[in-house]
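Amino Acid Chain and Its Fold in Token Form
===========================================
What this section holds: a protein sequence and its matching fold, both as plain text.
Structure line: whole-number tokens from a learned vocabulary of local backbone shapes, matched to residues.
Purpose: to set a sequence beside its fold so the mapping can be learned.
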Amino acid sequence: MGRVAIASISKPLAALGLLLLGLTIPVAGAEGEIVGNPLVEIAGGPFVFGGDSGPEDQRPRQTIEGAPFAINRTEITNAQYRVFVAATGHRSSFYGGHPFLGLDDRPVVGVSWDDADAFCRHYGLTLPSEREYERAARGPGGSAYPWGAPPPGDMRANVGADPCCEGDDRDGYAMTAPADSFAQGASAEGVLNLVGNVWEWTRDFYAPYTGEPDPAIAQKYRVLRGGSWNSDSAHLSTTYRLAYESAFRFSANGGFRCVRSSPPQ
């Protein structure tokens, strides 16, 4: 059984404080439509899932058959999350009023798995499965990154300092970047920031790919994918799996996006 990697999501940035901002909330669209964040179609067919190097919990590398689905082009932003809050009365994100993390165009952070799941279901969508995340991020051939084989550098993703796990501004952003940033890091289908910026909740429980999970963790942790603005190179890949308790909502580097599965995976 692979290890449960729960240490990399940061605790609340208490020293930064919260500052309520006067922000304009746009109008919500029809079911399945998140204004400003279209769904990008991902074709079905065989694709590479998992890997034979790195942490044990991402093994083995295998080719599996996937159904078609559609995934948000970007992470869900603060502005998009506030539309949901206004329409449903759901609680705000923990960093919703933060002077940097709470900016309109930044990915929403400070949301639990249940918060993210409720948002997606409000639009008739779901959180992606791990398989859907990997197919969107790796393409059918199993790339190390959405853009291919080269490491992120400063132009393809919002990543952290070389020592884990601290942010830096060498890519232009000390913390989160706008959700539509880093066009050079887009996947072949045009999906942005599938690696870097914020970790993204998936709908799956953490478990090994083969065999049964340790009873101590079975059905206990949800998986996040993709790394974030304070991740080092070891955590920035399309196969790295981060497990965390679903109720935790204080992460300054954890967000999400939604999918429309057809049929659900």
